[in-house]
Design a protein that fits this description.
Structural class: alpha/beta
Shape: globular
Order of helices and strands: HEHEHHEHEEHHHHHHHEHEHHH
Low-confidence stretches: none
Largest sheet: 5 strands, parallel
Number of helices: 16
């Protein structure tokens, strides 16, 4: 089942204006499929560091590897697996000085990786590809952010969906690999996905011990149980018997792997937006649901508070995939807003 991604036209547009374009996002979100589509459409050569031979060649002589590739536009998939090529990329695009030289994909935030010391500032722009949104899964291309701001949303005719169908969509999430699979197959996929991210990808961001990996695995599951809630670092540190600063550092690692996001509160005072407690949201509600063993029936019947938190995360995800520079007609940022209902005495 192929679903055209909403950011596709943005990638084509950026390649006309910038030397390097990077598509970032969690593993299995569709980056390889999208990059191959772009490569075929634009006649770009395609290389992936998932190929052991290509990976080894690049590691042994990154400068020569990039020099050979730079003769024509190309795609390099899973760039984070060979961080040594970043310096070579910088030199290559400075010499070539042409738009659309490289399209990169990465399953980790390149510049939060400890192995990368260089910056591609001014040479590269990044877009994020998240798991499929509810809009994409249902063949919708409308930009709801623009509709909100230009006051056309009130005239939009929404499809009617059963409540149970929405809940099932929340629990399934948007990763392409779990669509139209049985519950058992979905659970197996999510468990292997988490294991791979913890066991293989953590070391891309930071050198971690087996104990650190276990700690971060526990933290991820605790965060899933607290999705859409305020982040209380002191409480998390007590649960895990580690320092507050370690909790913050571990959450930054999970963010760099595109598993979770911290959302700041909205205040007119911009300073408060940065210092007040953020909320935690998962990039995918299917992953969050799996981590807390949630199923649609139980959520509806007896776990309404948990369902409410997942619904909030689901709505966040629906907007988050639109949070790409140039995708909307308006410059916007994502915050949450808290308010308190005061009890009224008759």
């Amino acid at each position: 089942m192929y679903i055209k991604r909403s950011i596709t036209p943005i990638v084509y547009e950026l390649l006309k204006d910038f030397k390097i374009v990077s598509i970032n996002g969690p593993r299995q979100s569709g980056k390889t499929t999208l990059s191959q589509e772009v490569a075929q459409e634009l006649g770009m050569a395609y290389y992936t560091f998932d190929n052991e031979s290509t990976k080894t060649t690049a590691q042994n002589n990154p400068n020569n590897f990039i020099k050979q590739l730079s003769s024509s536009p190309c795609v390099i998939d899973e760039i984070q697996m060979v961080p040594e090529v970043v310096s070579a990329l910088k030199m290559s695009v400075d010499e070539g000085n042409k738009a659309g030289m490289f399209l990169l994909t990465g399953s980790a935030d390149l510049f939060k990786m400890s192995a990368i010391k260089e910056s591609l500032a001014g040479r590269m722009v990044s877009v994020s590809l998240y798991p499929l949104s509810f809009f994409e899964l249902n063949g919708k291309s409308e930009n709801i952010v623009d509709m909100l701001f230009d006051d056309t949303l009130k005239n939009y005719i929404f499809d009617k969906r059963a409540f149970s169908e929405i809940v099932k969509s929340i629990v399934t999430g948007g990763y392409p690999s779990v669509q139209n699979k049985s519950q058992r197959s979905q659970e197996s996929w999510f468990e292997s996905y988490i294991e791979a991210r913890i066991e293989k990808d953590l070391s891309l961001i930071k050198k971690v011990s087996a104990e650190n990996k276990s700690e971060i695995n526990k933290l991820l599951r605790i965060l899933a149980a607290n999705t859409s809630n305020l982040l209380k670092y002191s409480s998390l540190s007590k649960h895990l018997s580690i320092k507050d600063v370690t909790v913050k550092s571990d959450i930054e690692i999970l963010e760099a792997l595109f598993l979770v996001k911290r959302v700041n509160p909205y205040f007119t005072n911009r300073g408060k937006r940065e210092i007040k407690a953020p909320k935690i949201q998962f990039v995918d509600t299917g992953l969050a649901s799996h981590l807390i063993d949630a199923d649609p029936h139980t959520l509806i019947v007896s776990q309404r508070e948990t369902l409410g938190n997942l619904v909030e995360n689901f709505v966040y995800g629906g907007f988050k995939f639109l949070d790409i520079d140039g995708f909307t007609n308006f410059l916007w940022h994502f915050f949450f807003w808290r308010f308190v209902f005061a009890a009224l005495n008759e």
